[in-house]
Amino acid sequence: MLEDPERAAQESTPEEERSESSSSEQTVSGASIPEASQGGVTAPEGTEAPAAEPALEHAEPGDGRAWYVVHCYSGQENKVRHNLEQRIETMGMKDQIFDIIIPTVEEIEVKEGKRRTVEKRVYPGYLMVQMILTEESWFVVRNTPGVTGFVGMGNTPTALRSEEVAQILHRMETTTPTVRPTYKAGQKVRIVDGPFNEFVGTVDSIDMDRGKVRVLVSFFGRETPVELDFLQVEKT
Prior knowledge:
alpha+beta
């Protein structure tokens, strides 16, 4: 029986050559697929890998410091901050307690026909303290006159997440002053601007989202609702 020439040629091919051929095929087939790594796809040769994202400005140094929320008597936030600043100075705690913030935003109010900008506390009765939490720093803050405690589980203060801190600081820095009405529904007000200037009416409703107030003004013995901006009205 005659032997197939092609088959005989394949069988005569050394095992080593077949192995090299197979290896070469794997290399070629894999060349078009970038190698994956933990950081993503590896950049091809001759091109620069994408730059890492810059660290957030509010990122804390690696010394263990963090922001904590301290509760105090409402209306005494500034006094409590002053008391704590004095204790930090006299007790030599500047290396463990670094900053104290009262979150506020600016508002515009009209009083006696004059506009003025005032600070409104975002979280009345609370302060933010940046510190390294130790027994000593906890004692200094907790025993400051006016402080009623830390925010946290039981006696353990809970540190704010970096995203929460960034959100609060961003709001303080970028919020445009809003108008705060000094009157309430049912109160008598005077219109100080527009076609109804000098008219006196009664506040029917206040829309804080739109910055509008609805005033009932008397025309020929009948009350007519008029919608105005907050700055067009003042309390009588």
